[in-house]
């Protein structure tokens, strides 16, 4: 293949700057940790934040016995080396606690603008890309070039008709992402108003209203996920023998087996697309890669920071990485800062945060069930089977309700902590934040915008 260069060419490639995600665990502490590769891309990229995965004890990895559940072409696919990051680690008590504590630190020391920064890869994430990144034994998973390599391999081997389907999907879904991002402001601003006491006397933040509102947001997520699965499934079902053979040489767990496609994006006409549409096509292509080569466990996988995303943690970690695609944030930042946040609190204040772990447990377990059920259903599209739209929409809406309840728990706990902090504690928390730069406006995902006018700030109060 004359367009293929060796991996060493990668570091000097001019790539599009994509927000992509991947988890990293600190094996020394077992804490939730993150590595980030951030940039200046707007909506529809994979993710600016590299979420954390938690190692709690020495959990043994379960081998998939069913052939259709195995990632393709990975000689050691069931080894612990390849399966470091799992849903079990993401839902572990310590993993969840440190992530929640880090969010508390970000929220108490942050601003509304910082709260609005949000990785778009947390939307419609049932296609295994994050899992593939986190378990890349080549060590490239936490580099922004990872997404580009995966995407261009797909675009390179697709035919014109197949590529056109991805472009058409990007055009159709562009407004949905904007609706989702703008809809988040009601939650963000309400949570901050609650913590700061900026709401009508006699009212209070209402758990049921918050959960229902979150469920309505997730209806958008459901549509994004369903439509994406149909289009990508149709493309996969139309693969030729040559295309299948091409993917057979690519190892899901090892990006060193992926060819570097020089000028791989040139097969699509970027000038005919908006920037958002172009980024969407690259995102879909990377997800098609992970979805086809992956499995159910990869699709259902998530990191702890997948939920409760309204509190500014992403901005606090990603600020120095934004616009710098070669920047890697320390993998210990979430665990270390989360633990130190808890250490600064007194026993009563700490309990507000630690009590969340038991309070959210049923929600988190049900979310895992939902993610597996949705992932299984969406995969039917690959083989031309009918995907049960009502089932997918109902489950993802329930997912949103549960996530809304969890976000309410976090907001309530952070507000209780904030109002009992001493001046000395606040000073320590701002020092721990170690970032005194705040956005002048807000973000639409990762794109700077003016703070939007929200006329239903009291909607979540009763």
Overview of this protein structure:
With 462 residues, this protein is mainly alpha-helical. The protein has one domain (4-449). Helices cover 51% and strands 3% of the residues. It is built from 16 helices and six strands. The chain has helices at residues 87-90, 93-108, 112-115, 129-134, 145-157, 160-196, 207-237, 241-248, 275-293, 296-300, 313-318, 333-344, 347-359, 361-379, 389-420, 423-433, and strands at residues 4-5, 23-25, 32-34, 260-261, 442-444, 447-449. The strands form three sheets. The protein has a two-stranded antiparallel sheet. A two-stranded antiparallel ribbon has the order 2-3. A two-stranded antiparallel ribbon has the order 5-6. Strand 5 and strand 6 form a beta hairpin. Helix 2 packs across helix 13. It is globular. The termini are far apart. Mean pLDDT is 83; it is low at 1-70 and 72-82.
Beta-strand content bin: under 5%
Count of helical stretches: 16
Query: Which class best fits the helix and strand makeup?
Result: mainly alpha
Q: Roughly how many Å apart are the termini?
A: 64 Å
Spatial extent as radius of gyration: 21 Å
The helicity comes to 40-55%
What pattern of helices and strands is seen along the backbone? EEEHHHHHHHHEHHHHHHHHEE
The parts where pLDDT drops under 50 for at least 5 residues are 1-70, 72-82
Summary tags:
single chain; 462 residues; mainly alpha; two-stranded antiparallel sheet; 16 helices; 6 strands; globular
Provide a brief overview of the structure.
With 462 residues, the protein is mainly alpha-helical. It is built from 16 helices and six strands.
